[in-house]
Amino acid sequence: MDKDLTKSSLLSPRLVLVTGPSGAGRSTAIAVLEDLGFEAIDNLPLRLLPPLLESQGAADRPMALGIDVRNRDFSVATLIETIDRLSAERGSALSVLYLDCQADVLIRRFSETRRRHPLAPAENAAIGVERELDLLMPIRARSDMLIDTSELNVHQLREEMEHWFAGGGHRELAISIQSFSYKRGLPRGIDMVLDCRFLSNPYWQPELRALDGRDGAVQAHVAKDPRFDAFYERVLGLMKLLLPAYVEEGKSHLSVAFGCTGGQHRSVVLAEALAGALAEEGRQVSIRHRELERHQVDAGTGKKPN
Fold first, then answer.
1. Within 13 Å and on the Cβ side, how many CA atoms surround 268?
2. Three-class SS of residue 192?
3. Alpha-carbon dihedral angle through residues 254, 255, 256, 261, given to the nearest 10 degrees
4. Within 10 A of 253 (CB to CB), how many other CB atoms are there?
5. Distance from CA of residue 220 to its chain's centroid?
6. Contact 276/185 with Cβ under 8 angstroms?
């Protein structure tokens, strides 16, 4: 931290403008603020800023806006004028966060990612870095808060952001649990996949075939499998072991998926059971049944084997 700021002045801004040179970590900072409950919009054109702020009511959640030199209407003068006007209107409710970084580090990052610099698409990245640092110097001087990311990795930057915008505490880990059918492929973006096709299949019971894993009779059938209790207890124990570690690692979201043949019975039973257990512990849990949502399975069709 280069700015002399009290912690309390940064804990409850209603609007945070996030800017800085390309490669300094702006996208990461925006993502952290979103995890902390801010409504986050990156690469916002300056011409859209006034109508957006006019629509932000007092009861809305706080907002984080990423300002980038890549926007076609970007102007240092316009941005500073906007900051001055918002400061007069909002006072301490506004915070301008500048992610800074040394030139040689920025050059190295562009070299490692092999990306073109937005201000030197046909030239050496070093030229673009120099141009951008010079261009943004007035905004750097106008910022309320400056974080130098030259020696910070992604996790350290996240911790720094949390320290100033969440009072030093970590945000709650959001857990998403879903069921799916292997016949339709694995869901995207899943951290942990658990196969429960080894459990007794309710599909082969005519009276259960048209039901799904949210039904008590289906749950009772699956739970009678002698392998169910051992499997479920181990999965629950694994989650209790890993969740604190994921929080320490800086993870904001964990997605777990249970799969079976048709995504209607066994996977739904396990997803419901795990989500319920974690919710009872006070965890932030959401649940989704992909195949039930996709096909809107009717209780009388029995067309989706599990």
1. 29
2. strand
3. -170
4. 14
5. 36
6. no
What is the phi/psi pair of residue 135, to 5°?
-65, -40
One-letter amino acid for residue 145 of the chain: M
Distance CA 95, CA 47 (A): 19
What is d(CA 174, CA 212) in angstroms, rounded to the nearest whole number?
26
Label residue 47 exposed, middle or buried (CB < 10 Å: 0-12, 13-18, 19+): exposed
pTM score: 0.56
How do strand 192-195 and strand 253-260 relate by DSSP bridges? Answer: parallel
pLDDT tens track for 7-23: 333 445 678 899 999 88
Inter-residue contact 204 to 197 (CB < 8 Å): no
Q: Which residues pair with 174 in a beta bridge?
A: 253, 284
In angstroms, the CA 206 to CA 199 distance is: 17
Measured distance CA(181)–CA(263) in Å, rounded = 4
Sequence spans of domains, the chain: 7-165, 174-295
Fold of 7-165: Rossmann fold (3.40.50)
